[in-house]
Amino acid sequence: MSFDSEMESLNLKSNMTLKMVEVEGVPFFNTIAENWDSIWSFKARPDDLIICTYPKSGTTWMQEIVDMIQQGGDPQKCARAPIYTRIPLLEMCPPRPRSFGFELAEAMPSPRSIKTHLSVQLLPPSFWQHNCKIIYVARNVKDCAVSYFYFHLMHSYFPEPGNWNQFLDIFTAGKVFWGSWFDHVRGWWEAKDHHPILYLFYEDIKEDPVREICKIAQFLGLELSEQVVNQIVQHTVFENMKVNPWVNYTTLSPSIMDHTVSPFMRKGTVGDWKEHFTVAQSEWLDDICARELEGSGLTFRTHL
Length: 304
Ligand code: A3P
What we know:
The chain is of the alpha/beta class.
């Protein structure tokens, strides 16, 4: 089956489902492809901070941690707006009339924090020219795939994912929005040798949030007291983020995200994949992973 007909065979869930169009071989929302020139020519500022992830890797978690660090651990200051306007998704282009991500970012005063899911070769050149700091968060491919499956079910811009087996095939082939997980995590891993990129892992943050928050603060050139670090850990623990409307996406219209289908803050664990993968699927993906990441030195933990 050709790529196009495979995509067409995915049911459009609603009239809000966006079409898949490639930019430089990476599938995106058609709205992103249509606005690609504006995204690519985005003007970075030297003090911009980028938070970059493959979708469903703990982006929102990192956004809230970063904002808490920058606000000195004050949760009231982080409650000034929903996370998606405090730290906008650069390439987000919903159907009009909502503001586009790059338009929100352009209007923000410095210093700005900006989120992106772009793969390394698609980051607008201005960020490299200004040597902007980048925090990258990677999550193991199995939990990432499961999380993306449920996200497809609950988010109206995404097509019907089919059943789990069908989705896993499409995901592994990189025929999902933002493309191949393998290319993403590997591309950014290799870029970190040449740019100020702090490459973190979801599993490490889960295991020892104090250690990882201290790493982030150091990368940002900020000193935090033990008390502030503990406040940040407490505020950003999954159970608290799940009920925090400023980060759990319940402030978005249910016509965009339907939390009754699957909440945005779903499980927040390492190893939920074991509830979804067969042994054969797990071994198959291990083999692909080993092949795709061979020689990179990049390894992932799938349980703690
Ligand atoms: P699950 O679907 O596995 O629960 P993103 O923000 O990149 O879209 O990632 C969403 C995933 O991160 C979801 O994973 C979500 O539950 C998880 N997540 C969000 N906040 C978290 C937190 N504070 N701790 C752990 N996981 C979190």
